[in-house]
Amino acid sequence: MHLFFLLTLFFLLVVILLISRTLSYIATGLFCYAFTLCAIYAGRWICKKWLASNKWSHLIFAVVNALVGFTLVGTAGFVYLFNPGMPINHILESAINISVLSFFLLFSGFFITITRSALREKMNGLVLAEQKKESELNLLRSQVSPHFLFNTLHNMYSLSVNRPAQLPPLLLQLSELLRYSVYEADQPLVTLQEEMAYIRNYIALENIRLADRLKLTVNMDDNPDDIKIVPMLLIVFVENAFKHARNTSEQQIYINIHLKVRGNTIYFMAENSCSNHSNEDGAGKRNSGLGIANVIKRLELLYPDAYGLKQNRTNNLFKVELWLKEK
């Protein structure tokens, strides 16, 4: 950037000399070139020192001294190159003009340094914000699989006690679920078809456990393979629906899950039975909100201004609706 600036200024000097069609101004042109560069870079140096110390007294002292020095040097050079016998009143007038020019050049260097410093701080801020966002996402991703594993192992324990004969095939299904949560969930995006297959496997596992009291409705449209989604987002709402429906005391529980794509928007809905009683023990309160809070944070980071989330509870039903703009 410095080289480009120097060459551009030198090019302007050459153009001016060529337009004048005389070699008598070469010395004057070189003097003006050197004077301009020195004044601008002096302004940059003063600004850097001021930014480092942040003392206005140092700034004023440096600017006044630089202004006086460049005015004297510029006036002397002007008189020597143009008219060595210039009257004193013309010399004073030239000194005033040169002092104004010197102030403008010093201010130009000052302005360039301030602007570059502001841009550099802004870029550093953007880099830090991106790094913070990435670290938050890594933390949230690291919480997804343990949360899922905790819920699934709890289900397996219940089956091993009540219906151990059904456990072997479910262990194979669990291995598929864990494979996806460990390997695929680490990817920034997966196809919507892969996420739907994962949800279907989880629903099948839960359906066997609750088959005697569950009325389940699943309606997920077949969608093109090129539709992408952030992995392990929707499963949190499905887990939540099964957990809260299972904890009710009703003989018949209801879970409705719908997923469809309209245009560039993914619509997901999960509706489940829930209890009217909100009194839970301390552990339940501590653990119940982890998944939902996690997914909301991920939505804010990965789908800023590109998602809508609505949660509604009426009587014995809890309903969550999610709209996502396609990635």
TrEMBL record:
One of its GO terms (molecular function) is phosphorelay sensor kinase activity. Gene3D superfamilies: Histidine kinase-like ATPase, C-terminal domain. The keyword Membrane applies. The keyword Heme does not apply. The chain crosses the membrane at residues 28-47, 59-82, 94-114. Keywords: Membrane, Transmembrane, Transmembrane helix. Residues 136-214 form the Signal transduction histidine kinase internal region domain. One of its GO terms (cellular component) is membrane. This is GHKL domain-containing protein.
